[in-house]
């Protein structure tokens, strides 16, 4: 069953760190079956707190999403994201097809 990583950028702190994060995060997808579905496009907040942007990636399974997130390459990238912005990140399991 597919799983989705949802990343909600709440507030940017350091654009330089985010630029470095973007470079490393792109490299961290190598070897993982990731399908980008939404990447910081125009959005409308209907309820809840404001957000600067949202990213959604689809993985074949929750285990695949966890494997990517916990990979050494992504963990190196994430250090820059933590310095560069405040985020909420979650993995949500999809529905059966």
Describe this structure in words.
The protein has one domain: 2-Layer Sandwich (Alpha-Beta Plaits), CATH 3.30.70. 37% of the residues lie in helices and 32% in strands. It is built from three helices and four strands, in the order βαββααβ. Strands 2-3-1-4 form a four-stranded antiparallel sheet. It is globular, with a radius of gyration of 13 Å. 12% of the residues are buried. The model has no long low-confidence stretch (mean pLDDT 96).
Write the layout of secondary structure elements.
Layout: E1 3-12, H1 15-28, E2 35-39, E3 53-59, H2 62-70, H3 72-84, E4 85-93
Antiparallel strand pairs: 1-3, 1-4, 2-3
CATH topology: Alpha-Beta Plaits
Number of strands: 4
Q: Tell me the radius of gyration.
A: 13 Å
Query: How much strand content do the residues show?
Result: 25-35%
Q: What's the CATH C level?
A: Alpha Beta
Short précis:
This protein is α+β, with helices and mostly antiparallel strands. It contains three helices and four strands; from the N terminus they run βαββααβ.
């Amino acid at each position: 069953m597919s799983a989705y990583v949802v990343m909600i950028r709440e507030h940017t702190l350091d654009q330089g760190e985010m630029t470095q994060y973007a470079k490393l995060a792109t490299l961290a997808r190598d070897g993982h079956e990731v399908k980008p579905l939404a990447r910081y496009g125009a959005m409308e907040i209907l309820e809840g707190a404001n957000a600067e942007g949202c990213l959604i990636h689809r993985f074949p399974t929750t285990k695949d999403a966890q494997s990517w997130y916990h990979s050494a390459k992504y963990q190196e990238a994430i250090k820059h994201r933590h310095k560069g912005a405040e985020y909420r990140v979650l993995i949500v399991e999809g529905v059966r097809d």
